[in-house]
Predict the structure.
Amino acid sequence: MKNQPGKTRLMRRAVQLACLVIANGYWHGFQRVMIYGGGTKRLCVPFLNCYSCPGAYFACPLGSLQSILAASRTVSLYVAGLIIAGGAAVGRLFCGWLCPFGLLQEALSMPRSRRVRLPRWLTSLKYVILLLTLLLPILWLGRAGLGEPYFCKFLCPAGTLEGGVLLVLGRPELRVLVGWLFFWKVAVLAFFLALMPFVFRVFCRTACPLGAFYGLFNAISLWRLERDYTKCTGCGTCREVCPVGVKADENPNHPECFRCLECSKACPAGALRFGVGAARPEVPQRTSFRSQ
Amino acid sequence: MRVNNFLREKKWALAGMGIGLISLAAGVARGETTAVLHKAARICLQCIGIS
């Protein structure tokens, strides 16, 4: 299965589309411009998916985490546990294979966007946003003495696209409430949409707090990219195919890697493998020594 | 030997998963899924940019 990054991309696209349909499959909600209120909304998905989307069957982990932080000033063990366990299991794989907003960004990106490299300060911005997402609901209290989900309120373009625009356009009673905040959020969405064709996954790489959190687990996650040093020829193919500029031959589990796995499929020597077991150089060396 | 190597190499991942799953279970036991449902089943005015 070597030299088949196109096949992997196709498979990933199919999984992303399936996830989009499963997570936002409440078609009645789109028809009647209302949101689903059933029991499945107890369950958080491990990726960004606004629960105010008329089609959403599940809850957004970031929205839930912030709301519980703001309301009770305690961290939700349920949501935090979910994303910690998920991150420790597969790192940023959720971003690459499941996130519907990631799918949108990839769908809008032009081939040239895969070559755009971002400065480090810009890719580090998401860690600042992650910190603010977790702290502001506790520290920035309103008149009633309660915080708010400030990332959702001021920044999240997924919420504006999936929930805000659809609900405001479809429901006159919400339309009369529109003010500067809505237009600010539409401007943020428009800003990211305008950049998406030119910079590959611009939101994930610069502003997504969930991606930043999962990225911290990339290096230690159970499933991760393993490089077999005995096979790697240093040809640089993995660097060429990486859409976010990760040098997989040096650091295959870089926090920026969202695990599209194109590098492992493109490697002509088969030196990169995504899995649980480590591809260690000592094993083949010892085996060959014994066989001699 | 293999199991020992595996546990040594993946100790942080296993610890993270263990902490995560225990937290998740504790959160479910505390009834946090109901709090999530209460939030998610209603239109979030902040999310859509109204409040």
User: Anything to note?
Assistant: Chain B has a mean pLDDT of 92.
